[in-house]
Hints:
Structural class of chain A: mainly beta
Number of helices of chain B: 17
Oligomer: heterodimer
Strand content of chain B: under 5%
Strand content of chain A: over 45%
Number of strands of chain B: 8
Amino acid sequence: MQPKEKNKLISDEKISNIIQNSITMNRSLKYIFSVALLLLSCTIFAQQPIIVGVVLDQENKPITGVSVMVEGTRSATITDNNGEFKIEAKEGAVLLFNFIGFTTERVTISNFNKLTVTLQEERLKLGEAVVTALGITRSEKSLGYALTKMSSEQINNTLPTYWLDGLAGKVAGLNFNQPSGPSGSTRVTLRGESSLSPDNSRTLFVVDGVPINSELYASGGTTSYSTGGVDNPIDYGDGINDINPEDMDNITILKGAAATALYGSKAAAGAIIITTKGGKADKGIGVTVGTSLNVQKASYWPDFQNEYGMGSPSSNKDVYSHYTFTDENGISYTTSSQNQAWGPRFEGQMFYQYGALQEDGTYVATPWVARDWYKGIYEEGVNMKNYIILEGNNGKDFSGRLSFSQTDNKWILPNTGDNTTNIMISATTKFSRFAKLTVKSTLNHKSSDNLPQLGLGRGTVPYLLLWGSPGIDINWYRDYKEWVKKYPNTARNNIFYANSDGPFFSLYENLNTLDRRRAYGVADLMIDITPKLSLQLRSSYDIFNDFRTQRKAYNSVNYLKGRYREQLLTSANLNNDFLFKYDESIGKFKLQGLFGGIISNMIRNNSSVVGTGMDIEGQYTITNSIAQPVPSLFRSNKQVNSLYGMFEANYNDYLFLSITGRNDWSSTLSEEYNSYFYPSVSLSAILSDIIKMPHQISLLKLRASWANVGNDTSPYVIHSSYGASSFPGGVLMPTSFSNPNIKPEMVESWEFGVDARFFKSRLNLDVTYYHSLSYNQIVNTPVDPSTGYQTIRFNAGKLMNSGWEVTLGAIPIRNKNLRWNSTIVFTKNNNKVIELAPGVDTWVVNSYSPAQIEARPGGPIYGIYGYGFERAPEGAYVTLSDGSTQSIAGEVLYDVVTGYPRLATSERVFLGNVLPKWKGGITNSILWRGLRFHISIDGSFGGKAYSYSHALLSYTGKLKNSLPGRYEGLIGDGYVYDANSDSYHRNTTVTQYIGGYYGAYYQSSSNTETNVFSTSFIKLREIRLEYNFPRKLIEKSKVLQGASIALFGTNLAMWTKWPINDPEVASLDGSTINVGLEAGSFPMTRSYGLNLRLRF
Amino acid sequence: MIAMKKLDLFITTIISLLILVAGTSCSKFGEMNRDPNKIAFGEIPPTKLLQNIIYSGQWNVHLRSYSINSELMNYAVNFSNNNNTSAYEIRAAEVVSPWTQLYRWASSAHHMYKMGEMTDDANSMAIALTLKIYLMEVLTAMYGDIPYSEALRWDEIPKKPKYDRQKEIYISMLEELDYANELYIPSKALDYPQRDLLYGGNINNWKKFTNSLRFRILMRVSKSLEIDSPTLMQEMIDNPTEYPMFTGNEDAAILRYSGISPAYNQFGPLGSYDAMHTNTRAGKVLIDLMTQSGDPRLSFYFSPRNGQYLGMLPGQDANYNAVMVYEACNYNTNLSTNTSPTTLMNYAELCFLKSEAAFRNFISGDAETFYNAGVTASIRQWRNEPAYNTNTFLNSSSVKYNNTLLRIIEQKYISQFMSGMEAWNDYRRTGLPVMPTGPISGNFNQNGVPTLPTRLFYPITTSSTNTENYEAAVADMGGRDDMLTPVWFSIGERY
């Protein structure tokens, strides 16, 4: 809500309005805000009597920060820590006492005695205005659905490298997945997975009404798990982290379909609405400067063994030699399998090792010790951000804001990271009596000299590290230039393995650069046609150009002569919309009608060209390509036209009904199906205003809503066209039939919620139950190839998501000196595949042999399926020595000859649900005078994932789990089956070949079961200590208006059974962030930081 | 004040109009969903599809020739853990790819035919029809009854096609080839002849291929009295103008590669397949036949190991394999260069078909003459040495024509090395040459005897997506989808 404009100069009433309307701010920051405002506006008039007084609450406790104003003048102050104030006022003047949460008191000065003013606590009102779909501001109490609002402070206080991380564990229903890496792209989902294609479940981001393109675009590499591949995906960053959090005023998280129904297709999976800051609300100019420093350290590691060195399981366990060496007895040794760790125990004995080559070409023996083979490469990451913000208001019809920020992000791997510069301008002018124009525009430049390849592939850093061994010193890889000279004509650039790029080689030679220029903004014109009817016209844009290059140097794996790729991406989202709003009151009824329309255009252009083989070494240009450069061109255009309307009826401010309807026309669907309508209905009742409640209940609100939202598809999928042939002039028949009859995907959902506040709002409980059904999923289903096609795209499948969201807020302590706020959020999600297409019993979402993420009817949406141990069947038993029998059904069966566990690899079995059953978070904030302490802990429970890194490290003997039985062999815990007697016996076979045993137990290519782990975790997500300098100190400086300093740490501690890096695991495959499969992820970091902010 | 108000109104209106105009200026909605990156489905010159049908279609036949025909017919043995084809145990995954890929390229050929019809391009129609039947014949010979009459409906939303009986399929194919033969207009050049990777636009050679293929099919179905193969064959022999067939290796259907991407043999270094698999060795049946006669092709087929040529028996246990891996020889590396040619149908095959037809008195002519021509053609195909005299070889005791079907088939077997599925197809029709089984050979018949597969079982790609028709087809052939049920062409009364 905007303060109502009156034909007066700035008045005290206006100031009080501003304070009242700034309730969007965190209440605990009111004090500072009030100080700042008053410092600006108050002018001390000459020599008037001074009134002294104290402001108390109903319990006679002093209230700090109450604004005290003399009505009709600009004289104002606020109460101090003792609730006391001093103000100059004449007799007969009226003092206004104003404090959030209390009724405003008016006191007329009749004498100059000390005043005692008691403020009555306001009966709690849900008057807060919130931004909902399409930027429509509505009062919170009228909403029939759940939403979460975050303030600027909540977002900016911690400032992790990626601002979105700051929301983790604080919003019920919100879920993040990030492929680890410096760019921090994030897949955000709300209330579970609503689609069979992971990209369709992603949440929409909207900045000031501009839908931001947060899609990722692949750069060649398609999977994070192609062990043979050298062209792994690179995370170039999505649009979300390009937004400067300092520019955000608030964020609204719209979770359910009812909340986003007015957004249409794009927000079928929820929306996150960001409103940026405008200019100052009052006359004057303000300057804020700030800096933040954030140091990250790779801190969570697999459980490495440091007892045994490299060597193959079959070689002599007592001798090691890096090259063929003959001992005094004439026995020669060459240890192979440097990528395994089954060698001799580290006991300081002297061996002929790498790195001990003398100038004369002979080796000397060096001590056999564990070295920093894995962790050594990771450095400290440093993220440094500086910003300056200018804001102003001419006191009449213009306000503006300019912010400038610069971020340097040096990541934990050497020679990786990026830089970002952000400039945002916003201006609002009331250039006419009827109209207000707001223009906001952000320019963003992001560049990087090198971003690492992700996942497991011969060109990635994790690949070589995982294949390393405890005796290796990471520094041995450093001098790759010398090494390359030794092997001029082979693709070999590291000391141990011919088939992968050395870590330093790939970080310093195979560079992946980025140069992104992005602009987004909006022009918004509000016209008051009559006092009841208004029209809003809006044009918005989000345009970016990405220029990317990818180099492969000479001697790279697969590219002996190098390779060079250039990619130019252009994306433009253009939106034009209008919105009529009409308000009417009839008796106790308040009615509001909205009618609007929008035209959205999405234009994409993605061109790349690859030159294989560089004629002149070190010259990376397409013209230097030996082979004919291969271009790849793609462009697309999509338009969605929409009309929508909303009707809201409000009875006596306690009963609300809201009906919305939207019709979309999407260019991606056929004429027959391209028009689709979706409605929503929501109800809200403030029960505590309707029925008299006991005084302990401050507020009781019930809400319910129902909605049906549609989702279209990508451009060009309904018309068949020929594929490109590698033969000149040739074309290929499509193998997938382009079905023109596909309809939009639909999500139907309903939710119920209760918002209850007790004890003067010191205890708040918000509970939501939701249920959503996704149907008409657009899926590619296999057809009999005899039709001439292999797949056909059509509508099928039903997915169900239901769950609970609970937010419990409490203020256990609130007194003069201390205020303690505590918030608990809890989310529980159940998801189930009800049906797939007829005749289809599994839908593979993502796979990496031997693990697959599949949707199967009756199972979860993302289930892990794979191979496990062969187990004794039902009814199997062993006869004990006393003659009795014992059932062994389900026990692991072993091979009687080898002693290895037996694997059942004929059929994939269900091994776990990727999505957690429930998540929760606890946030505590304690304010003591100027000091604020904040701690947040969150956790996730019941999810599982498959770790390929774990498989690899385990079966090559590098984790502690492979320590038993190295010299003496071991007997696996289980049973053997004897076919001759058709009976079972306890396994007694001692394995001779220990590597073979662990191979069968953990082997990456066949055993899924032992590499699937729970991803449940509890993280001490952040601790922050913030100090706001006292007003007195600031006043002395004459120029400062506010100063704060904050120290923080994130990911400080973690409890989890997940064995590899971060349990919040995800991987980047092409342009999709996938969950449930881990391969070659980077370590999880702990970070420490400092924020300093000065306001002038 | 009033003037001020009007000015406000004026400015407001202008700005609103500007925004509205900006919003509504957009391109035509309906046209927007046309993919600007690709050619829309519809009328294209049919030859745009030709390169890939020849290249990829033939490659898929060649690949199955390597992985199925060679293994079953003891040209070679692959003894890796997950491959037991030579022991008659065929993995479920093995049968998926031929079904998918052969239908895929047959579908392209069918589409090319339709495009030829639309653009009134008779030569393209005839070529497309020939290629479609070349691929579909491999399919039906492998599986038996398959979807044919309702298959490949590229122009409508795919419906589940019913399976046709093999007899009906062969009748249709013979008619279609007859029609293709009539369609050719040799005087009219093929547009973009360079897109014809097989014959470079030579329509006469295509016509010969069409008829040679028809002759192959007539022999294939000759056992059954339901098709009068002898008469139809004689008719073709009697009218070489109307039914021209191959006259030498130079017009045979052998695909030669430039070796430059994308036209290379995929067993070559540029490709992604490995013919020289570390677990693959020559088969004993073939090696013995060739060493016995001092066959001049032997060193072109295989590379000696330890100076000698030894082959492996099929269906042996791991101990045998572990020894033989160091003794038996492997394919000659010349078979897997980027330019190694691959065969659709060679001239030798046609000669042996004629020889068998004469031997069976289906056609007039001397079986021995045809036989000698076949052996010579095959040697010339591999050893391109005009001076090489084949007479000594032809007169050697184990080669000289002895008026037995076995001799014809044995030499045909040698000549069909790495050439489609002909050896297996002939075996099922004639039972020749005799194939040994080993201790771990599978596919037991009702008497518990390991049996060389009579057909391949249907892949899951059809049984799970076209279930009703699949079940009807299985019921029609006796209720069992196994590798023991004979296909129609392998049973008959004529011989």
